[in-house]
Amino acid sequence: MPDSLRPTRWLIPFVVVTLGLVVLSGALAWSASPMLVERGQWRMYVDVYDETNLTTWWSTVVLALGAVSYAVVAALSGPGWQRRRWAVLAAVVALLSLDEATVLHERLDRFVLDWLSPEDFPYLWVVPGLAIGAAVVICVVVLTWTAPRQARRWLVLGFLLLLGSALGGELVQGWLVSEGRLGLPFVLCYHLEEAGEMLGGVALLGGGLRMLVLRRAAPGVRLELVGAGTADRADDVTTDVAALR
Questions:
Q1: What's the CA gap between 16 and 19, in Å, rounded?
Q2: Per residue of the chain (245 residues), what is the pLDDT tens digit?
Q3: Which residue in 17, 128, 214, 227 has the most C-beta neighbors within 10 A?
């Protein structure tokens, strides 16, 4: 093992598994829409159209790991704004993981049923979801405005992919359903949506891992914030120079 290791290298298996699940789901779906045909057990188990199967579990786990990574960064950060920033981000990503596991967003349609009907638009949750998504984006921008650049890029990419795919994808799917286009266009659209959401989760995990580094430290390894070890070594050099004087 080298003297230091960036945990972001671990993202490659997450990307591979994510794309593999999407490809497997697409291979089983072909052009047969889940709204038009009876699906077998295998397809129901991996089809990204479902909200309670293997792909849902995978997305939940990735987001939960992202939340844990930000919590670790918060714990390693000094007191004050830095720690609060990462703690809030950990809470936001944890809520996204909870939503993925329990499909909370699907229940947002209750807020608009008094003046909108599923006959008007099949995915009514998107209407209040747009407002919530905008609030989340504003929150993230404020939190990451002064965040280290290496993490900010991953964070922005992650939230754009996840929220953009979820809201934009279901807007397009709602239009396709309204127009009765339930074949290949619908199947392709929901696979692209779920791929974007899951890759967004991986990017959010990358934002936390990008802030961490593993270093050799007797008797094993030590987890640090990026730059912390450099600062320690600089202090050691300064001390050595002072001693020589």
A1: 5
A2: 455 567 777 899 999 999 999 999 998 887 677 766 777 788 889 999 888 899 999 999 999 999 999 999 999 998 888 899 999 999 999 999 999 999 888 788 777 877 777 777 888 888 888 888 888 888 888 888 877 887 888 998 999 999 999 999 999 998 998 888 888 899 999 999 999 999 999 999 999 999 988 887 767 778 888 866 544 433 333 333 333 34
A3: 214
Residues 40 and 187: beta-carbon distance below 8 Å:
no
d(CA 154, CA 210): 8
Residues 187 and 31 sit within 8 Å (Cβ to Cβ): yes
Under a CB-based contact definition with an 8 Å cutoff, are residues 82 and 55 in contact?
no
Please give the residue range of the domain that contains residue 64. 4-244
